[in-house]
Write a structure and sequence with these properties.
The chain contains 14 helices and 17 strands. With 421 residues, it is an alpha/beta fold. The strands form 5 sheets. It has a 7-stranded mixed beta sheet with strand order 4-10-9-8-7-5-6, with helices on both faces. Helix 11 packs parallel to helix 14. The protein is globular, with a radius of gyration of 22 Å. The two termini are 33 Å apart.
Length: 421
């Protein structure tokens, strides 16, 4: 993102934290691992691995149901994790945090519960043209069931939302607006404060997909004034299978449960059941307790380093990468928004992205190649997919140099560059 310039010593010292991540020490195909697929999932620091291992070794028990010490201790850890997420997002109340398996499940929860209970025929759902499939498909399912209509905000050639078109599309039929805070395919940082303000002016409810944002910048849901905010732990140096939904308390209280079973009930009889209060009514069954413990450790880890420092480091790295990549003949960036997160998405003339990904893998470089679960966006740019390098706090300029060298090797293998170069 466009952070202020920082001297190299201040910015680059974050790459020393690579030593905190054991997987980065393992070689791949006999080469040093250069992990640049952080947009898909980040690696895990030892602190997170240790936290999960300690839970299973010392604390494992089911929560909310036992009177024995282990159950109560496990419940305390789970509740402590919820409070950590509340403070991380600056939610007003801990009851506004619902644990889910991740961003996808959180969006499905909102679509199934809020969407099915609130939307009616003719209502309009406004989504951006750069959404991940997880913020498209659930709304298509609800729209089909309820007779609602999906409208799509166009994306400019540079990879930014067309805000003039967005303003023009808002009307009294607009009931819901779903937008990614940061695009996973382009790195675009959307003007979410303005999007929320305009959407609320017509009475629409707003969900922000923060999967690509929370690891790179501070998020304050009260300042954003959004109605729902979702993210995944595994993109925040935390475990897979855990994430969170923030929702305004009044909205969550009014929403019906979306799954039934244990722990989300107050009373059960064969005649009728009554439900637990928010957020427990949305967390049916035994939850991912160890995942919550690991997520809390991950949040503590990034907060100790400092999200501002992480953002500055990644911005410096992105600027360096863009400069080096732009010098490669035939390389074209897909998405060049003025405000970008640490993602460089590109194509190279004459080489399919999947071939690029395979060749780079043999050099120890892990990138993502394909449509990035954003097929409508790829169609908009007329490409089958892109190669995407996405950066994290443990990456360095040396990683960028290895990436660039591997791309030159790919061009040589395809006869696009002098073999002696």
């Amino acid at each position: 993102m466009n952070a202020p310039s920082h001297d190299t010593e201040t910015v680059m010292d974050l790459s020393v934290h690579a030593a905190d991540f054991p997987i980065l020490a393992r070689p791949v195909h006999g080469k040093r691992l250069v992990y640049l697929d952080n947009g898909a999932t980040t690696q895990k620091p030892q602190a997170v691995i240790d936290a999960e291992a300690a839970y299973y070794s010392e604390s494992n028990a089911n929560i909310h149901r036992g009177v024995h010490w282990l159950s109560q201790h496990s419940t305390d850890l789970y509740d402590r994790g919820r409070e950590r997420v509340r403070r991380f997002l600056n939610a007003a109340q801990v009851e506004e945090i619902v644990f889910t398996r991740g961003t996808t499940e959180a969006i499905n929860l909102v679509a199934a519960s809020w969407g099915r209970s609130q939307l009616k025929a003719g209502d309009e759902i406004l989504l951006s043209g750069m959404e991940h499939h997880s913020n498209i498909v659930p709304w298509q399912m609800v729209a089909e069931q309820r007779g609602a209509v999906i409208k799509v905000v166009p994306v400019t050639d540079s990879g930014e939302l067309d805000m003039a078109a967005f303003a023009a599309m808002l009307n009294e039929r607009t009931r819901f607006v779903g937008v990614c805070h940061v695009s996973n395919a382009l790195g675009t940082v959307n003007p979410v404060e303005e999007i929320v303000r305009q959407a609320h002016s017509v009475g629409a409810v707003v969900l922000l997909d923060g999967a690509q944002a929370v690891a790179h910048q501070k998020v304050d849901v009260q300042a954003l004034n959004c109605d729902f905010y979702v993210f995944s732990g595994h993109k925040l140096y935390g475990p897979t299978g855990i994430g969170a939904l923030y929702g305004r308390r009044e909205l969550l209280d009014a929403m019906p449960p979306w799954q039934g079973g244990g722990d989300m009930i107050h009373t059960v009889s064969f005649e009728r059941s009554t439900y637990a209060p928010t957020p427990q009514k949305f967390e049916a069954g035994t939850p991912n307790i160890a995942g919550v413990v690991g997520l809390e450790a991950a949040i503590a880890y990034v907060q100790e380093i400092g999200l501002e420092r992480i953002a500055a480091h990644e911005d410096s790295l992105l600027q360096y990468a863009v400069q080096k990549l732009a010098a490669i003949p035939g390389l074209r960036f897909i998405g060049e928004a003025a405000d970008r997160a640490a993602i460089a998405s590109f194509v190279i003339t004459g080489i399919h992205p999947h071939d690029l990904g395979t060749i780079l893998d043999m050099e120890g470089v892990a990138i993502r190649a394909g449509h990035h679960c954003a097929m409508p966006l790829m169609t908009r740019y007329g490409v089958p997919g892109t190669a995407r390098a996405s950066f994290a706090l443990y990456n360095s300029r040396d990683d960028v140099d290895v990436l660039v060298a591997a791309l030159h090797k790919a061009r040589r293998l395809f006869g696009l560059e002098d073999q002696s170069a």
